[in-house]
Every structure is written in structure tokens, then in C-alpha cells.
Amino acid sequence: MKKIPYDLYIYLDDLRSFFKGNLKKTENFLSCGMASLEISTYLMGSLLRVQEDKNIEKIEHILKGIETQFNLLNAYNFNSESIGFNEGYSKNIENLKLLDLKYARRIDRITELYFEVSKKVQLGLDDQINQIRDYFFLVKLPAKKHNSEKIIEYPDIVEVLKLNELEYFNSEDETFMMVHQISECWFNIGINELKTIERSLDNAELDSAEIEEKFKLTFKVLNYLSDNILLLDLMVLADYHPLRVALRGASGGQSMQAYELFKISKKLFEKFLILIEKENKNLVHIIENPKTEGDLLSIINNFTLLERGLKNFFFQHYVLTSNIIGSESFGSIGHDLVSLVGKFIQPIFKEIDQAKYDLTLKTNYQYGKIAGKLILEKEDTIPAPTEKHTSDIDTIIRVTDAYFAAISSFNQENWINLFAKDGFIEDPIGSRPYHGHQQLAIFFKGVIRFFSEFSMTIENMNIEEDCVKVFWNAKAKSYNNKEINYSGLEIFRINDSGKIMSAQVEWEPAIIADQL
Hints:
By secondary structure, the protein is of the alpha/beta class. 54% of the residues lie in helices and 11% in strands. The strands form 2 sheets. Strands 4-3-8-7-6-5 form a 6-stranded mixed β-sheet. Strands 1-2 form a two-stranded parallel ribbon. The longest helix has 32 residues, at 294-325. InterPro entries: NTF2-like_dom_sf (IPR032710), SnoaL-like (IPR037401), Trp/Indoleamine_2_3_dOase-like (IPR037217), Trp_2_3_dOase (IPR004981).
């Protein structure tokens, strides 16, 4: 198979030697995590040796990333697995000594985090890390000795990727390449965490605590990846753009692992839907019943968290790219930059989005009688008709017929124009009214959005001195194709000009919620 330019550029085939796959998950996690730290400290050392002011922000960003990577390693549940690295020495980690003594507090935090991880698993650099602490006049920390049954080779990323032998195109080439190499390490970790969840769903082993742990680690990985890519925001554009031209056809958008991370997220969710369908449950039911469906709700919430992480990654990538090449551009592989926008606007797990919308509308009707009550109690004035109700029967019949015809045909303009400028609808009675044409339009949009079909018929009409009372029946289909039937009473006050001053609706909205 022909290799894509991106793989050739970041030496992905060589980097894959650290990707052990599903069967060696903990080994994969350690190898990829430490390889990423090796690349980070190698890049930091390279920038420090140049000693240019423009690199200071980059170094700060890399140090922040190193700290985050150790936090990610610490977040992994090793389950007391007896595995670890052989005792070794890292030329790249040693680059921390190139930092000025003003970075001592940062070194303190980073090395403390190293020893936090080393309490769980043998990392093999305890002596070297303590020597670095000593270099910055920091008190040495106690190393924990492990009796690891399986010892794996420390990832010599310099040797494997031949970092010392590479010839870079210009001053930004090294940064651009290594940011993507770091990303590939953590993409692989995220993929394997999600594959662990997939196996749980396949076996219907819904240990919600374990699944949540994997989801949250993946979310943290995505957040780190979103921040890691922003190191490229610090490139000197005058140097980057010639590199971009020389790299024609190579783009981070070609990362197959990034695609796989997205693809497996969707696949996981499809399996979850099949699982709850077998239990005769649906998403709305689970969200509505947190006390009885706590475990399943936890998984839904974790899918929502995963979606937030994926969208944040796409958003940060869009912002970065538009800052560098302008939002009107298209990338090296020919995609319009604006096409990225859909990745973080459209819902990834559409069924969850729809379920939350369903629950929103259902709740609107379920609690319709108290809609706006808290605000209504605090408002200074309650709307009331400003003119006397008309006694002209022809006007009353014409207006009420037009009212129900307009709402049944979803004719918003005709319906609103039947009201006086300060007219209002109180639907149901006791809720906060929609007052004036602007608010009436909001009410009508809610009707249009909820119903796909709608027909109201007048059953009876009582014309009284100060109002007209219309008894009606409604037959409709909801937006999700549910048959809806309900009835009610509407009290109109109409002025002599044939404009509705007020429409008050007496009915039980919860009837619709029950039918949904």
C-alpha cells in the first residue's frame, strides 16, 4: 500500500514500534506515554540550545505539556499489574537541566508527578529524576522499589526515530513534526482506552465505574491533544509557510489514528444503543429516571463528555489553522477550512442530542401550568385588555374562525396579525403570558417546531358580555410522529377593530406529555 505523505513525514512506521495494541494494553500505555515525554523533552532541549527569545513561549508550552502528560500517566489504573521499565537513563529527560534555575518550581511539580506515577509502576528513571531535583536544589524524593514480573525496554525514541540524524527544512520544521508525533502517541492511547470499553459492551459487562474511568481518561487525553496542537500557534509564520509549501500533500488531517478515534467513538455508541434496546429501554427513559437507571445514565453522561472532548479538539484545530493560514484557505489535502466547523457544531451522538430535545419538549408540556411562574411573580404588571370587548357577533365569529384556521395551517403571519399590538396569549391560564407581537412569534414557533400536523376544530362557542368562550378539540402529530389528541377552552377578548386583546387557554398540557 502506498504510504501517505503525512506518515512519511512524521516517520509513523518507526513510531508504531511503540504501539503494542490491545493485548498488551498497559505496556502500550507506558511505552506510548513515555515515548511522548521523550519527544517533548527532546524538542525542549533542541529549542533551549538555540537560545532565541522567540522560543521562550514554546518552552513554557512544552513544560506545561510535560506536566499534563505525567498527570495522564498518573490517571491510569494499573490494577497492580507487575510491569515496568528496566533501570535506565534518558538523554532527553536530562534536558531539563538546561533550564534556568528560575524554573525550579516547575521542575519540582514535574518531578513530584514522576514519583507519583512511580509509586504505581516502575518507570526506571528514579535515580536520574532525583539527580535533576538535586541540580535545582530540591530535596530528593523517596524512590519506590518494585518487584516487576515483566520488564520492558525503556523507549529509546532518539534511536528509533533517529532524531539526531534528521535534517530539518527550517527552524519550524522540527516543532511541526514533533507536535504531530506526540499527538500520534496519545491518539493510540485514547483508541485503546475506548477499545477496552468496547469489549465491556460486547460482553454486556457494564461496570459503570470502570467504564467511567476509561471515558474520563480518554477525555483528558483529548483535552491534552487540543492543547498540544496549539504549540504550533507559536511558530514564526514567515518560516512555517515555506515549510507548508514544501510539505504539499502532508497534513495532520490525514492522521488515520485521529479518524479511528472518532470512528470507534461512534461504533461504541451504536453498541450501547443496541444494548439498551435489548433491555427495552430508550435514552429518554434513562435520562428521566436517574435513581433507577443510574448506571446507564452514567454511561450516557460519559458519551456526552467524550463528545465534548472530540468537539474541543476539532474546534482548537480549526482556530489554530485559521490563525495560521486564514479561514478562507483550504488545507494541504484540499479540504476547505470552513468544513471543519461542522465537526464541532453538529452533534456526534445524534441520538443523545435528540433524546435531550425530546425530554425538553416533554417537560415543557408536563410542567406547562407553571411555565414562567417564577418570573411572573416578580413582574410589576400583568397584561390586561386595554379596551372593551366587542359586542359585534360577526366580528367575533370572523376573528375566532381565522384564529383557529391560521394555527391549524401553521400560518404564523396571519395568526399574529389577528392580535392587537399589545395583545397577549396566556397558555395555559396561570402561566406567564406571551405579550406583544415579538413574544407571540416565539410562542407560534414553538407550535410549529413541536407539531408536524395540526388541526383544531371548534366544538362550541359561548358569547358573553365581556368575552367569548370557545371549546375546541385538537388532533395532531408531534415532530416525532406521535398521534396527539387533546381538548380545551379558549377565552378571547376582542376589540371593536377586530383585534384580539387577550387569549387565555384553559387545558391540561400534561396530557400531551403523557401521549409522548
